């Protein structure tokens, strides 16, 4: 949208500059004729002091009441100066050339925003946990006019833009070098909570190693907590890398159109990772059950009729787990969550009931999902479009 306004603004500018004088070209073809005596030095009235050219008494001079539409002397002169020797075919050719230059300039600067090939890269064993988000990314990129593929590896595929996910796995050095060699661009997507033990040092080293090879266009992530941590990294500040909040949000891909029961509780958590946390949660919700959903059909079949309790891997000050919450809110399922990072809570306090350590759970505080409000507030395609429009694209 911004690029389109930029383009048509330029068209309007050149129309005013070049085409408007064409409309008012003078019919007098002897303007500045060499045989004319306009500048005849023998003409003794040249700048004659007695001349009334600038006579203050001449009430015609810049008369505000003079609204004669045919009086276009200034524009006639400009038109003559620019186009005195051009006949009509040459004039038309000049107009066409001007428009071609504008269009070429437009697409040279902004072509990367349109009809890109985008490839998403992540390890195959991680796709199991990220399949909804990856499918929603593909949908949104296609909705914006791009082609998009999912690659379950870290091997270069010819693309205009690569989204590299899950930095917890080593990103091969050659992968980044191939991106650089082929003059492609890439974005890191930080999918992991950065409040895990030792994650600060771990990710700082990983990012620095890859940024030194090739600076990413940006780093995307799903939590304001991660943004806070990433902005504290010297390698981010020194290389002026943009950190964008691009969370999983509303998408028709995982709008399963479900209903929620405020008295039936379930959790969607990975066995092994959350066992201890789930046991603690069962004290508060004795009838809670744990769902295992790894496909779109399983989500649609198993989640319907529940209110979902969101559990953190690490309890303290955790990023909000939007990879599983976005499909729930998109489908109309109410969510109760353990306390999260305050900035994440502030963004979602109209959609999620956040538990408070000092206040007992109250089922009356569970928030029925306003899907239309959620769709308009957190729309996946709109968030991605805004981020892409603000990135420092390279000319190709």
Write a structural description.
With 396 residues, the protein is α/β, with parallel strands linked by helices. It is 41% helix and 12% strand. The chain folds into three domains: 2-111, no CATH class; 115-249, Rossmann fold (3-Layer(aba) Sandwich); 252-377. A six-stranded parallel β-sheet has the order 2-1-3-4-5-6, with helices on both faces. Helix 9 links the parallel strand 7 and strand 8 (289-291).
Explain briefly what this protein structure is.
This protein has 396 residues and is of the alpha/beta class. It has helices at residues 2-23, 73-83, 88-110, 124-143, 173-181, 199-213, 224-230, 234-238, 275-284, 296-302, 322-331, 342-348, 371-377, 380-389, and strands at residues 117-121, 147-151, 161-165, 185-190, 218-221, 242-245, 265-268, 289-291, 307-310, 335-337, 352-354. It has three domains: 2-111, no CATH class; 115-249, Rossmann fold (3-Layer(aba) Sandwich); 252-377.
Throw out a few tags for this protein.
396 residues, alpha/beta, Rossmann fold, 3 domains, six-stranded parallel sheet, 14 helices, disordered N terminus, transmembrane, membrane, transmembrane helix
| Secondary-structure element order, N to C | HHHEHEEHEHEHHEEHEHEHEHEHH
User: Could you list the spans in which at least 5 consecutive residues all have pLDDT below 50?
Assistant: 1-34, 36-81, 108-112
Rg, please?
Answer: 32 Å
User: What class do helices, strands and sheet pairing give?
Assistant: alpha/beta
CATH class label of the largest domain: Alpha Beta
What is the share of helical residues?
A: 40-55%
In CATH terms, what is the fold-level topology of the largest domain?
Rossmann fold
Summed up, the domain count is: 3
Q: Which architecture of the largest domain does the CATH hierarchy give at level 2?
A: 3-Layer(aba) Sandwich
Order of strands, widest sheet: 2-1-3-4-5-6
Instruction: Assess the beta-strand content as a share of residues.
Output: 5-15%
Per DSSP, the total helix count is 14
Q: How far apart, in Å, are the first and last alpha carbons?
A: 21 Å
Mean pLDDT: 80
Shape: globular
The tally of strands reads 11
Q: Tell me about the biggest sheet?
A: 6 strands, parallel
Keywords: Membrane, Transmembrane, Transmembrane helix
Transmembrane segments: 5-22, 91-112
């Amino acid at each position: 949208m911004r690029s389109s306004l930029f383009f048509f603004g330029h068209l309007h500018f050149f129309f005013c500059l070049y085409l408007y004088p064409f409309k008012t070209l003078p019919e007098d073809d002897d303007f500045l004729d060499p045989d004319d005596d306009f500048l005849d030095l023998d003409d003794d009235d040249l700048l004659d002091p007695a001349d009334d050219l600038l006579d203050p008494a001449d009430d015609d001079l810049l008369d505000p009441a003079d609204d004669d539409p045919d009086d276009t002397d200034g524009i006639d002169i400009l038109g003559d100066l620019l186009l005195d020797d051009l006949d009509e075919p040459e004039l038309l050719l000049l107009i066409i050339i001007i428009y071609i230059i504008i269009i070429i300039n437009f697409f040279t600067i902004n072509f990367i925003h349109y009809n890109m090939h985008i490839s998403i890269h992540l390890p195959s064993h991680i796709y199991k946990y990220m399949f909804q988000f990856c499918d929603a990314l593909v949908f949104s990129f296609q909705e914006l006019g791009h082609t998009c593929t999912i690659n379950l590896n870290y091997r270069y595929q010819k693309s205009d833009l690569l989204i590299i996910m899950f930095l917890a796995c080593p990103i091969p050095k050659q992968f980044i070098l191939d991106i650089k060699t082929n003059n492609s661009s890439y974005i890191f997507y930080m999918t992991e909570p950065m409040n895990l033990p030792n994650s600060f040092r771990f990710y700082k080293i990983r990012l620095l190693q890859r940024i030194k090879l090739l600076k990413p266009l940006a780093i995307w992530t799903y939590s304001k907590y991660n943004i806070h941590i990433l902005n504290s990294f010297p390698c981010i500040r020194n290389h002026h890398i943009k950190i964008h909040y691009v969370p999983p949000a509303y998408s028709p891909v995982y709008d399963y159109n479900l209903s929620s029961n405020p008295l039936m509780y379930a959790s969607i958590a990975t066995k092994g990772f959350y066992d201890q946390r789930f046991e603690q949660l069962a004290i508060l919700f004795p009838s809670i059950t744990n769902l295992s959903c790894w496909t779109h059909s399983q989500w649609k079949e198993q989640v319907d009729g529940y209110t979902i309790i969101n559990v953190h891997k690490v309890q303290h000050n955790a990023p909000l787990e939007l990879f599983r919450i976005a499909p729930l809110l998109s489908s109309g399922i109410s969510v109760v969550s353990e306390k999260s990072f305050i900035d994440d809570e502030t963004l979602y306090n109209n959609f999620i009931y956040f538990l408070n350590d000092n206040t007992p759970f109250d089922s009356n505080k569970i928030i029925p999902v306003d899907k239309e409000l959620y769709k308009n507030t957190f729309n996946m395609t709109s968030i991605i479009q805004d981020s892409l429009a603000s990135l420092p694209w390279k000319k190709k």
